[in-house]
Amino acid sequence: MTTDSPQNISTAEQEHADLCRQLHHHNQLYHGLDKPEISDAEYDQLMQRLLQLEKTFPQLASDDSPSQRVGSTPLDSFTSVNHASPMLSLENAFGADDLRDFDARLKRFLARDEEIEYLCEMKLDGVAVALTYESGQLVRGATRGDGSRGEEITQNVRTIGAIPLRLQNNFPQQLEVRGEIYMELAAFRKLNEQRREEGETTFANPRNVTAGSLRQLDSKLTASRPLTISCYGIGAISDNEPQSHSELLEILQNWGLKVNLDTFKVATNIEAVIERYEELLGLRDQLPFEIDGMVVKVNSRELQQELGEKSRTPRWAIACKFPPRQEQTVLESVRYQVGRTGAITPVANLRPVNVSGVTVSSASLHNWDEIERLGIRIGDTVIVERAGDVIPDIVKVIREQRSGGEQEIPEPTECPACGSPVSREEDEVVPRCQGLSCPAQLKESLKHFCARGAMDIEGLGDRIIDQLLRLELVKSVADLYRLQKEQLFEFERMGDKLAEKLLTAIDASKQRPLERFLFGLGIRHVGSHTAKLLSRQFGSLDALSAAGQEQLLSIHEIGPQVAESVTRFFADSNNQQILAQLQQLGVAPIATEQPRGDKLQGKVFVFTGALEKFSRKDGAALVEAQGGRASGSVSKKTDYVVAGPGAGSKLAKAEQLGISVLDEEQFLVLVDKEGDNA
Ligand code: IVH
Questions:
Q1: pTM passes above 0.90
Q2: Which residue of the set 35, 107, 123, 599 is catalytic?
Q3: Is 475 a catalytic residue?
Q4: Same structural domain, 344 and 458
Q5: In a mutational test of the pocket of ligand 1, which residue from 120, 228, 263, 295 has the highest number of ligand atoms less than 8 Å from its CB?
Q6: pLDDT score for 196
C-alpha cells in the first residue's frame, strides 16, 4: 500500500476499487463470520487510505463505499418514508397457557388437527428497522415509526458494520429485510465505562442508547456506537420465495445479512415451544444481549399466508414475554455525586427492595433530561429494573399512586461538596461544579490518576486518599511525589513497612508509559483509547502540549470535541504549572510503541472465571498485541477459552463444543509472558 496520493484518477480508481474490495471482505469476515484475518489497526489503516483517496477524488465516494461506515455529512432533519408493506407488531403471550391457546386458535382457524411446526426466535430488546436493497445495494434504512410510516435513517444504518452495504451470492433484485438493531451487553458496559472515564454521563440501558444512536442527525456519532443487528424477516422480496421461515433466515444469512441463526430453534409442536421458552428463561442471564421474551412463528410460509394478519398483528406469530426483572419501590430522596470533571450526577435513594434475588437500594438517575423524561419526584412510587448495566434503573413512575406530597427534584445551585456555584451549559444534561479547589473533584481526580489503567499506584486507594486530603497533604497530583515517610505516620493504621511500600509504589509510577500518564491526567473526553492514540502520534508530553487543534484534528478518530478539550487543558496555566512540577519531581512518562506480533492472528479468545494472574483487560491486550481478539461469549467461532477458578457456564459450553481450554499459566506461555507481571 502506498501512502502518498496517486497523481492521476485512473490509478486512484484502481487503488480505490482494490481497497473497497478488501474492506468489504474484512468487514464480512469480522461481522458476518466472526473470523477476522487482520487486526483492527490494519483495518483502520486501509480505511484511512480509502478516506484519503476519496478526499482527493470525491467522485470515487459512492453510497456503498466502505467509507460510509465512518459517517457522512450531518442532516438537518429526518425525512419520513412509507413502508412498502406495514411493519406489524406482535400480540403478547405470558407463558405456557397462552401459548397452548395460541396453538389451539391457529388449528381452529386452519381447521387442522395435525401439529404445526414453529420457529422459536429470541425477542431482542432493541429497535426495529427495515432495510431496502435494490440490485443488492443498500439504498434505504427506516425506523418502524407508526408501522406504516417511519423515519429514514439510511446514513446511520450504513455506519453499522454488521449491516452489509452490498449483498452477496444469488441475491434478489428487490429486497426489504427487517431486523432488530441492538447493542451487546459487553459493548454497552464498555461504552459506559469509557464515558465514565471521559467524565461523561452514562446511558441507562442498551435499548435507550441504541434508539438514541439511530436518532442522530450526525451519522459520525452513530458510527462511534457499537451497534449490531439481527435480521428476522422480510417485508418484500422480488424472487427466491422460500418455503419456510427457517429457510428464509438461512437464505438471508447467505446473502451476507446477519442472522443470529444459532439462537433460533425449530419446534415440531407447541409443547416443544414451551420447553424452549423455559430453556430460554434459564439462559437469559448468560446471554451476551438483552432479550425480553421469545417470538414464536409458524414455520411454513404457506401456512403463514393462509393465516394472514389482523389489523396490526400477524395471526401466525406471537411474542411470549418474560417476567420483567422489575419491582415497585419508593424514591425516598436524591443525593448528588460530584465527579472528577465536576459533573454532578443525581442518584436515587430507594426504599430497599428485592429484585429477582438482589437487594436494590439506589439507582442512578443519570441526568436532568432523564429526570424530565420520567417526570419523577421525591416520594414517588417507581418501578426499578435490573437490566444491562450493573446499576439498576428506574424505568417508570406510577403516577396513580401519588398522594400530592411529592416534591420536584431540585437542580443543585451549589456544589454539595465545596459549596461553589454550579452551572449548566446549554448543551449539557448535568450541571458542573466550578470550584477550582473542590475536594470532591480533587478526590476523584486523584483516584483516577492512581488507578489501574493510569499510573497504577498500588495501595493508593480510597482510604489513603481520604486521609491525604483530610490532613491537607495533597492539593494536586504533583504533591503525591513530595510525600515524606514521617507525614504518613499520622495516618490511621500506618506502620513503617506500609509507608515504605506506598512510597516505593509512588516512586515506581514515575516511569509509566506516556499513554497511561495522559489518561491519568483526566483530560475531559480523553479515555484510555484516545490517550493511546495521542501517545502514539506525539511521542512526548512536550510535543502534545505544543500541538494545535489543526494538528490534533488530522488524527483519525480525533474529533473537534477532543481536540478542543486537549488544547484547552494544555493552555491552562495552572495545569502547565502542575506538569512542570511533575517533571521536576522526576515524573518522566515514556512513549512506548508496542510492537505488534501476528502469532495469534485472527484467533478469538474468551476469558472466564475469577482470573488471578492478570485482569481480563490485560489478557485482552496481550491477545490483541499478537493480532488476536477477545470476545465476551463462547461460540463455534471461539478458538481458546482461558478459564480461571470458578469458571461456570462458559467453560461448560467450551467443553461441549470441543474448544481448547487454557488455564492462566498456559495462556501466559502462549503469549510469551511466562513469569512476567502481565
Ligand atoms: S417479528 C410480523 N421477530 O418485537 C412480525 N420481532 O412487537 C413482526 N422483535 O417490533 C416482528 N425480536 O422490534 C420479530 N425475532 C423477532 C424479534 C422481533 C425482536 C421486536 C420487533 C417488533 C417487536 C414486536
A1: no
A2: 123
A3: no
A4: no
A5: 295
A6: 77
